[in-house]
Write a sequence for this structure.
């Protein structure tokens, strides 16, 4: 199912092939996710298409510097991040809070202890 998403100001927009009901969104307590309040679903790069904003994002990396925490340089919202699986598969971590028409009260979530990962 194709979903549309964006940052708050709309300069960064994307489409992603994602069934929100197939598995819960992850709520992580790592230093980054806890501060941003993201709810994440991971998809292969092939299921993601950036529609606008490639030049509008700032990349922040920390720790092992394996994840590109991208955020809109205008409104500051992180709609997705980029990384790769241990086998090298490129993935996107979608902040489902940035998808259109998502009711977080109806979305299944699962807590992950990223702080002690």
């Amino acid at each position: 199912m194709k979903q549309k998403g964006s940052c708050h100001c709309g300069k960064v927009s994307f489409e992603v092939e994602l069934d929100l009901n197939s598995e819960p969104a992850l709520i992580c307590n790592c230093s980054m996710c806890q501060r941003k309040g993201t709810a994440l679903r991971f998809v292969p790069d092939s299921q993601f298409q950036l529609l606008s904003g490639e030049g509008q994002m700032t990349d922040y990396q920390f720790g092992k510097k394996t994840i590109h925490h991208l955020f809109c340089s205008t409104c500051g919202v992180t709609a997705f991040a980029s990384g790769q699986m241990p086998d090298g598969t490129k993935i996107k971590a979608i902040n489902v809070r940035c998808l259109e028409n998502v009711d977080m009260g109806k979305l299944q979530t699962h807590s992950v202890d990223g702080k002690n990962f």
Notes: The two ends are 31 Å apart (CA to CA). The CA atoms of residues 5 and 100 lie 6 Å apart. The domain at 2-110 is CATH 2.170.150.70 (Metal Binding Protein, Guanine Nucleotide Exchange Factor; Chain A). The longest strand covers residues 90-95.
